[in-house]
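Lab channel / #folding
Pinned by the channel admin:
"Please post every new chain as: sequence first, then the structure tokens as a reply. Keep commentary short and put observations after the output so the thread stays searchable."

First post following the new format, from NK:
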Amino acid sequence: MLTTEFSYSYLKDYFSQIFIIDSNSSNTNRNIIIYTRGNVGSFRNFGITETFQVPVAKWWNLVAAAILNHKIIKGVVWAPFEARITQLNVSLNNQFQFKKGWGFEISGYYQTKSQIDLQEWLKPQGELNLGVSKQIMKKKGSLRLSVRDVTFFQNYSGYSTFQNAYEPFRVTWDSRVVRLSFNWRFGKAMKTVTRSEGGATDEINRAGTGN
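Reply from TO:
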């Protein structure tokens, strides 16, 4: 199944982080920069979202999504400032079910160069996740081993634009995580109860058949 969505948004008095040079008279070398946040202007976004879901095979289910955004950010910092960017986010989730209770999962996403704030850009980033599971104890329990961000690509970096220069930055953390989990379902499964419509329905049926 393929689903397509179109979107448009407009924000007035867009709230963004900004970098400005300290105008204090003591800053004679103009080398002190103030980091703050404020309403700087407007934000427009034109978006297209494609979602695709299909059982590729009896043992393989695929879900994919692609989001394309075109952003226009305008504001006044030290002078009128405008940023335009087209960015794409693609995500995939593959679920595999094999015999003897084995399961496997491959998922992840990729984000092209992107922008949120007026003076800050982010370089491409993404994530690759893997998981394997096994049903045990006559399907009452399951073991699952998963690894998040196998390629260590989720950490992001970019650069900020100042009045007379720009600053590259990089933010890193322990995004690669390994998890081992155990689930156990205990108790009896609840049976579906068929509700009787009562004697009124019986009388109607009896009248209709003449009995």
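NK: The mean pLDDT is 84.
TO: also worth noting, Residues 2-209 form one domain.
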